Amino acid sequence: MNECVFCAIASKKIKSRIVYEDDATVSVLDITPKSKGMCLVIPKKHFDFFDEDIQTATKTFKSALIVAQKVKTSLNPLTIFFASLQAQIPHFNIRVYPVYENQIPLIENRPIEVDEKEMNEIANKIRSIDVHSPEETETEEVVEEEPKQEIVEIEKKVAVEKDDRQRDDKKFWFKKSFETA
User: Fold this and answer.
1) Helix (H) or strand (E) holding 8
2) Which structural domain range is residue 86 located in?
3) Burial 56-70 (b: 16+ CB within 10 A, else e)
4) Who's near 133: CB < 8 A, 6+ residues apart?
5) Which residues pair with 21 in a beta bridge?
6) pLDDT beyond 80 at 141
7) pLDDT in tens, 155-175
8) H or E element that contains 29
9) What is the b/e burial string over 88-101, where b = at least 16 CB atoms within 10 angstroms of the residue's CB?
């Protein structure tokens, strides 16, 4: 049985342009990109579908977020699309698609043409960006404030007006049904 091409990339038996790597994943520039800087985030462990190994799939999604941030910072696309598609290669992976005004990476689009020199430049740009994992970034604690008295009074007034309108509506429809009968 032939070795999976993504397993060969992950084990570095096949040369690739690695833009990010951690203990569970390797992220490479796609050699047939739909947009400039499109990357594949590949778990080093072989499995076909995310639910076959939730723990590794979770790490793969976290790596995809890191790669997306690196791409966004280095290449300045409008936004980033993510996809997990079981296409030609039966090995779970996440595609990171940068979206530009003139490049919308739809699956049915042909790959864009990028020469070796530009691919190396793109890989170096993405690789050079330092991004922390989602666990490392500090999150602000959300503190709920007590609603101000003014807001509470407005809410009460709106509730009373709503009740009045509903009563008026009921009277209208009762009167209307009485008139038509």
Assistant:
1) helix 5-10
2) 5-128
3) bbebbbbbbbbbbbb
4) 22, 62, 66
5) 26
6) no
7) 666 666 656 666 666 665 556
8) strand 25-29
9) ebebbbbbbbbeee
